[in-house]
Specification:
There is one protein chain. By secondary structure, the protein is an alpha+beta fold. It has one domain: Aminopeptidase (3-Layer(aba) Sandwich), CATH 3.40.630. It is built from 5 helices and 7 strands. The chain has a 7-stranded mixed sheet, with helices on both faces. β4, α4 and β5 form a beta-alpha-beta unit. The longest helix is centred in the N-terminal third of the chain and has 12 residues. The protein is globular and about 40 Å long. It starts with a strand and ends in an 11-residue tail after the last strand.
Length: about 180
């Protein structure tokens, strides 16, 4: 049975290795320094990781930035919403297509209100149809597509940003 939970800091080195092994593909930009910065945010408590495991075997994970760590380039899409940025959603190559990526996104959506967020943003290569389908299935809608040649070195070289706004029935009051 697949379980989904927040990752522990002791697991970060394993997760980073997994990301480079199973997340690297022509559509996904994984510069070493950028990945190091993501994992530093996790260590600093500004980002979290949801892991999918089956009998302790790692099947995938999703990294999400808490609203205070939203990259500036996404502020234009967040409006007045406290927004979570989903930086990674990676699934073991042997388990792709089994709904694990969709479930990871859903689990991150479920965590949003714990961080005071009412919106989530994720991006992908414009032509990455597998990611597009996974994101749509989780309820994300397309917000914008733009030229992004510094991150995308193949195909259209464009990034598509997708967003999810929590419905009032999903939103929970934030206790201070």
């Amino acid at each position: 049975m697949i379980t989904y939970s927040l990752a522990l800091h002791k697991d970060l080195a394993t997760l980073k290795t997994f990301l480079f092994k199973h997340g690297s593909n022509p559509w996904n930009h994984l510069p070493g320094d950028g990945v190091d910065k993501e994992f530093a945010l996790i260590t600093e408590g500004k980002a979290s990781v949801i892991v999918a495991t089956d009998n302790s075997a790692l099947l995938g994970f999703g990294i999400f930035y808490h609203p205070q760590a939203l990259p500036n380039k996404y502020l234009q899409f967040s409006g007045l919403h406290q927004t979570i940025y989903i930086a990674e959603a990676v699934v073991h190559q042997a388990h792709v297509g089994q709904g694990i990526g969709h479930k990871l996104l859903t689990e991150i959506i479920n965590q949003a209100t714990k961080f005071g967020a009412s919106m989530l943003i994720v991006d992908r290569h414009e032509q990455n149809l597998a990611s597009a389908g996974m994101m749509r299935k989780a309820g994300f809608i397309e917000l914008a597509t733009f030229d992004d040649p510094h991150r995308r070195d193949m195909g259209s070289r464009k990034t598509t940003v997708m967003g999810y706004t929590l419905k009032s029935s999903e939103a929970q009051p934030v206790l201070l």
